[in-house]
Amino acid sequence: MTETPIMTPSNPTQGQPARLASEYSGAVGKILARVQAAYPKYIDLSLDRLTTLLHRLGNPERSLPPVIHVGGTNGKGSTCAFIRTLAEARQWRVHVMTSPHLVSVTERFRLAGALVQEDVLAATLEEVEAVNGDAPITVFEILTAAGFLLFAREPADLAIIEVGLGGRLDATNVVSAPLASVITPIGLDHQSFLGDSITEIAREKAGIIKPHCPVISAAQDAAVTQIIEAAATTLGAPLWVMGRDVTYRVLPDGGMAYSDPHGDLTLPAPGLIGQHQYGNAALAIATLRGAVNDRMQNADWAAITQTQWPGRLQKLGGSLLSHVPPGWDIWLDGGHNPHAGHALLPTLRNWQDRPLHLLIGMKSSKDIEGFIRPLLPYATSVLAVMEPDQYDAISVADIVAASGHVAIPGPDIVSALKKLSGETGRVLICGSLYLAGAALRRDNVFERA
User: Fold this and answer.
1) Cα dist. 227→43, 174, 209, 233, 331 in Å?
2) How many secondary structure helices (H) and strands (E) does the chain include?
3) How far apart are CA 448 and CA 322, in angstroms?
4) pLDDT band at 1 (very low <50, low <70, confident <90, very high)
5) Is the pLDDT of residue 6 over 60?
6) Which helix or strand (DSSP H or E) is residue 384 part of?
7) How far is CA 315 from each of CA 19, 107, 187, 366, rounded to the nearest angstrom?
8) 260-312, pLDDT tens digit by residue?
9) 0.85 exceeded by the pTM?
10) What is the spatial order of strands in the sheet that 94-97 belongs to?
11) Which partner for 67 in 61, 89, 178, 225 could form a disulfide, CB atoms 3.0-4.6 Å apart?
């Protein structure tokens, strides 16, 4: 498969060595550090390098269980988590590949219900590295190839694979005939790689649609829906669109009324917090009903209440609480673009019972102002933070400037928390999944599920 690659912007490795040192620890870290040193582009969108490597490995991507391929901009990880919960409620064995990880690289690979053991992952990566030899390859491509090997060797009923970046030229897009292609809400993000307009980005995301394979799309802007519809029509792929073919509404008791061409469901609230998680849960339900036509009972679909996914409006309960007054709450969210900022607003409106303090740290490539500005009216204070192990972080001074100098320097999470006072209060640490990972390491309660 030959495709024209999307070239990376200048300085694609900024921050990467520190990230390998802090997050890819042990044997896995040594392997990935070698790979990164040999080909120091963190992102280089193309399929050629990986297809060549997979051929040398015996094409494990052709021996996977049925695949649900999940792309889009926001909500991919949460949607994968909902799909997994629902499938496991049916006693299916489920593989899952997601990115990025928060604390340990092993979070990226779930084998038939359990996260991969580090020694197993290290052995698989060494195998892939040996087969690749000195050929150019990115860290993400090596990880993806290792995931395919792991998934091909362990029996399962379903594999859920999250797109890394974009879709058309993402390494995961070597899967040729998925059970379903899922497209979560598309917004402006990674413009330096995918294009400056929402329609350019949508064309890249729609690249995961495959001939005659069902497509389930979240509700999108009209122009984005047109692009997805055109791609599906061209490829003869059946398409369900949320808001048209699939609908849901939040009930007064917090439950959800769901409807699709197969019928109606009345369900409890999703296990993940936030108004936007109703949409992610409905998208997951539609995926299984649209692709498998699975006649699960209401009680089975109600498994959405059991879904967990770290770093998405997660309430912390570890050592970070020792730095704020008694009775305060600390929450964590990894959303990092304007769409994610707006998705937080319904929750912030419901949080007006006590002062809200925002701790914001972001990646240098993100639209800082677009994320921060919608949040400012709900904040009693805003503190700009940058952790030493936060990958490719923007400076505290730049965050302060993007906030219109409403924010003050933290300058790091613990120092910022110690500045807060009052009888009651709530903290939201937000702006980056990499900051979320740093916060979880500081909190010392992250559990390997």
Assistant:
1) 25, 21, 11, 10, 37
2) 17, 17
3) 23
4) very low
5) no
6) strand 381-384
7) 25, 19, 26, 24
8) 999 999 999 999 999 999 999 999 999 999 998 766 666 689 999 999 999 99
9) yes
10) 114-115, 109-111, 94-97, 158-162, 67-71, 180-183, 215-217, 239-241
11) 178
DSSP 329: E
pLDDT at position 189: 62
Buried/exposed code over 43-65 (b: 16+ C-beta within 10 A; e: otherwise): bbbbbebbbebbeebeebbeebb
Contact 116, 109 (CB under 8 A): yes
Backbone angles phi, psi at 255, to 5 degrees: -75, -170
Angle value at C-alpha 53, between 49 and 56, nearest 5 degrees: 150
- Does residue 256 sit in helix, strand or coil? strand
Structure tokens at 187: 């917004």
382 HSE (CA, 13 A, CB side): 24
Strand partners for 258:
248, 265
| Confidence (pLDDT) at 340 | 87
Tell me if 442 sits within 8 A of 417, measured CB to CB: no
Cα 366 from Cα 364, distance rounded (Å): 6
Could you give the angle at which helices 26-38 and 139-153 cross, rounded to 10 degrees? 130
- Please state which of the ranges 75-89, 179-193, 375-389 shows the lowest mean pLDDT: 179-193
Residue 157 phi, psi (nearest 5)? -95, -20
Would you call the peptide bond into 12 cis, given omega within 30 degrees of 0 as the criterion? no
Residue 37: partners with Cβ closer than 8 Å, 6 or more residues away: none
Residue 32: predicted pLDDT:
92
Residue count of the chain:
449
Give CA separation, 142 vs 48, 192, 200, 374, in Å.
13, 23, 27, 38
Q: At residue 164, what are phi and psi to the nearest 5 degrees?
A: -75, -55
Per residue in 414-429, pLDDT tens? 999 999 999 999 999 9
**How far apart, in whole angstroms, are the C-alpha atoms of residue 77 and residue 109?**
13
Instruction: At 212, list the tokens.
Output: 């005659």
* Mean pLDDT over the full length of the chain: 90
Residue type, 66: P
